[in-house]
Every structure is written in C-alpha cells, then in structure tokens.
Model the fold of this input.
Amino acid sequence: MSAPEAVRCTLMRGGTSKGAYFLADDLPADPGARDDLLLRVMGSPDPRQIDGLGGAHPLTSKAAVVSGSTDPDADVDYLFLQVAVDTPGVTDRQNCGNILAGVGPFAVERGLVPAGDAETSVRIRMLNTGELAVATFPTPHGRVRYDGDAAISGVPGTAAPVVVEFPPAAGPLLPTGNVRDTVAGTEVTCVDNGMPVVLVPAAALGVDGAETPAELEADAVLAGRLRALRAEAGHLMGLGDVEGTTVPKLTLLAPPRDGGSVGTRTFIPVRCHTSIGVLGAASVAAGLRLPGGVGEGIAELPAAGDRVRVEHPTGFLDVDVRVDPAVPVVRRTAVVRTARKIFDGTVFPRPAETAPAHARRPGGRHDSAAR
Ligand code: NQM
Done:
C-alpha cells in the first residue's frame, strides 16, 4: 500500500468565510490535478463534505493558492478557488475578498513577505481578476497578531483588523454600458467593482428583503425568477452562459432597517449569503452611488464621506467607496476585515481511487461550482 498523499495546509477564517490556504508550490501545477486534489481535500462532492475539510456551505468550501509575485507592483499572487459542495466543481471565475483577508497574514507566516515591527502591508495581485489589493495588519515584534478589538458582523467576538484597500479597477464599472437595464421584465443595475453583481429591488420580486436566508432559499417562485434574471443578465454583462457558474451574484435591495445605507440579501448565486461578500459589497456600494441606478429611492446614503453601510442578514459591512459618476469610475475602495489562523499542518486528501468516478476528473471545472 502506498503512503497517503499529504499536503501542507493552513486553515484560516478570512472575514466571514473559511478556507484552506496553500503555497502554490505545495499543489500540482496542472490545474486539473490541482482541482481534483482540492475536491478530495474538501470532501466534495457531498452535501455534508463529511470526508474533508469543507464546512458544507459555499462560504466554508474555499481555497487560496499563494506564491511570491513576479509583478513589481505586488509582493504575492493570490488565486482564489471556489470548491463546490455537492457537485465536483472547482472554479477560478470568481474572486473572494473575504478569503483575501487571510492572504497577507498567511504570506508572512510562510515567509513570503518579511514582517514589519509594528504592522505589515502586503501588496497582493489577485490572479482571478488581475487586480491589486493592499492588506495591512498588525505584526508586533515581527509576528502576525490575530487577537484584537475589531468586530465584523457575522463573526463572533473580536480580532485584529485587516485593512484592505483596492486601487481603482481596470474593468468597466457598468458591464452593460447602462446604469439601468430591464432584464426578465425587471429593472436592474449591473455593476462590477471587483465582483459582477446584479442589483435588484427586492420589492420587484415580491419580497421585502428582510427575510432570513433560509426563508428566501425555500421560496421556489423566487428561485425561478432569480435564475431567469441571472441568465439574461449574464449575457448582457458579457459573461456568456452563466448557468452553473458562480458569477454574477444577485443582490436584492431594500430600505435600511438598522441605521445603515441599504438592506441586502445576496444570492451566490443559489444559496443566500449569510452576510455579504467583500467585493460583492464593494460592487453594491459603488452601484448605489451611481445616479439613475435602481438603488435610488431605496438606499439612504450619507450626505458626506465615502462610507456606505451595507446591511445584511447578520449585521452590516462598511465599505468606503469613492465614485466619479461622470466617467463612471471608482477611485477608491476600502474595507476592514479580520482573519484568524485556525489550524496549520498536513491535510490528507481522500484517496483518488475511492472518489466517485465523476469526481476524478472535475469536468467543466470553471462551470460547476454554482451552489
Ligand atoms: O465578494 C462569497 C464571501 C464571498 C465572496 C460569494 C467575497 C467577495 O463572502 O469578495 O468575499 O460571493 O460567493 O466569501
């Protein structure tokens, strides 16, 4: 009997997500072999992911692949991979700003970036989109500090802040060229400030936007409307056939209920997010700042400053976003997240030979992670 496969791995919470972080050198270079390995690490496909590290939800079935960067503007490269839960899919078609929060600390822990004496800034090239981000976090005496007093909604307790800044993105903020489109009979705003998102007034779909994720997921009529709307919006946004993919996301907008700027419920795209993605929220915030968007008359934006407080099912996420609506372009986006190293060691993937036949070669790895 051969020795089991063993892979160095760090399990981290990044923002409101959880994932397995790897050095690129520790994974197969071939994307097919890498994705097959990640399915076996996570325990997919299986709704309970009982035989792997995955937490039986898309938000806890994620992987980060990190390496030193050859880009002079970046210290490290970060590839985000969404590992589907109950289908054998791994996709690199979306980015993840929550898992991003753990990349800087991971890079310091693994010696890719030297730690500063008080805090460290890591310049990260996000390979999924080609965009850059800068993450700054405390490193007293040259060691990553995880404890602290920053609280983020959706995570119990407090931890050290990870401040993430996104320089202006290169791609179009309005992928359809319009601030408003009619899609499947519904007026929407399609926006991309790091994550392609379709903004939809909740009322237009017959819900009030205050329902729990479980209530919304149980609504079969809503699911049908969202699916039709997303299919049409995907084409309009230049994303092609999005059936079976994880982007675009759909965010239902409602008036704020807790003193924030707007209420949201986000579909990623089938499950309803228990909070909201970082880049998803950045796109929502940018979309709300565009005159003529569907958020007008729903959102209540502060008269001054860059802050948009995006309410979601478990609290809120503050995004600082400065938009020049005339172009339109986003000049600056910033968020505060936290991250925590949970476990560092060796993961033993489920052996390849016991995997179901359809999981051995993750067919359509870019197209089947949509739950
Ligand atoms: O939008 C979930 C998450 C995300 C993505 C998703 C994210 C982001 O909360 O930047 O973080 O939208 O699938 O981790």
Observations:
- The pocket of NQM is lined by residues 16-17, 58-59, 96-98, 195, 246, 249, 268, 277-280 (CB under 6 Å).
- DSSP finds six helices and 16 strands in the chain.
